[in-house]
Amino acid sequence: MAGEALSQAQPWQQLLALIIAATVVMGSPGPATISVTAVGAAFGLRPSLGYTSGIVLGTIAVLLVVAAGIVGMLASLPGLAPVLTIASAAYILYLAVRIAMAPPLAERGSEAARPTLLGGFVLAVANPKAYVAIAAVFAGGSSGAADLGIPTRLMVLGLMIVAIHALWLLAGAAFARFLRRPLASRIINLVFAATLVLTTALAAWP
DSSP secondary-structure letter at 206? Predict the structure, then answer.
């Protein structure tokens, strides 16, 4: 009944439903969003733009793969999902260690190691949960979004991906001003690193 009502709704209502669904499903805490926040807190806003851009580009690549219907073909390949899960988990653990060990901002030189655009891209495309979440929103069966057409859904969800990760980055960067004090820096970095690992473990739980 709800699906039929939404399918008969005005285009703006279907668009609003798609935005709300994307906010709830794609904007909720997960490995990618939490990692962006943690990197922003540990390294500051500007040094984290490359990593966040990689996450955004990788997530948009996942969106395009979903739109092209390649997910079903990939899902038919035996053993692919576990490989992606292991690769994603391994990079997240590496990233968590980097965040936990990051020195206070005041002590960093210009060459301080920081996560890269490539690292963010790899994490985004190797995260199996991203395919499930984006496919659910893109299909839009419960929101009537399927009636909007593929180009519209691609544009809206692409913009939502950018906006969602930008907000998570800004949230993390807001903590950066506290990270010039060694003790506060260590505590906040450890909390974000632990949160990243916990969020990843919960996402991977069957």
Answer: -
